[in-house]
Design brief:
145 residues, Immunoglobulin-like, 14% helix, two-stranded antiparallel ribbon, globular, alpha+beta, 3 helices
């Protein structure tokens, strides 16, 4: 997770093998640009434009609401109950979708990192995004043999 001259973005490898650690590091200043989620999701479920993002938070069945529920986000108290959500096998493998829970991590601190072993099968594409910055913070990692 980086920010600099342009908008915040994820920068890193585009492929990983099963059994390798995938480490996410927040190199941004959350006090300046806000916190981040690194969430696995199906490509069609990731909101990309402002109208889609707004609808994503308004609809109980959309990924944004489901993600916040899984992380136990309490807006009134400004608290996150669960910083890590791991569904499926232990490790990076399961995408959130409009109908299920998946794997996700939340950070609101510069320098914080989180690692999990990739347990997805070879040939899998792990798509990811940040729910707060989904217009620029999204991408994919191919799981290679």
């Amino acid at each position: 997770m980086v920010s600099g001259q342009g908008p915040p973005a994820f920068v890193g490898d585009t492929s990983v093998a099963p059994g390798q650690e995938l480490k996410i590091v927040n190199r941004t200043n959350p006090r300046r640009i806000g916190p981040h989620f690194f969430t696995l999701a199906e490509g069609g479920d990731i909101p990309r434009r402002s109208g889609q993002i707004k609808r994503c938070f308004q609809n109980e069945l959309k990924i944004c609401k489901r993600l916040f529920r899984a992380h136990e986000v309490n807006f009134q108290k400004r608290k996150i109950g669960k910083r890590k959500v791991d569904s499926g096998q232990i490790g990076w493998d399961k995408s959130f979708s409009d109908s299920s829970r998946g794997d996700s991590w939340f950070t609101d601190e510069k320098g914080k990192s989180h690692s999990r072993t990739v347990v997805a099968d070879p040939g899998t594409t792990l798509r990811y995004f940040c729910v707060f910055h989904s217009e620029t913070m999204r991408g994919k990692i191919e799981v290679t043999p």
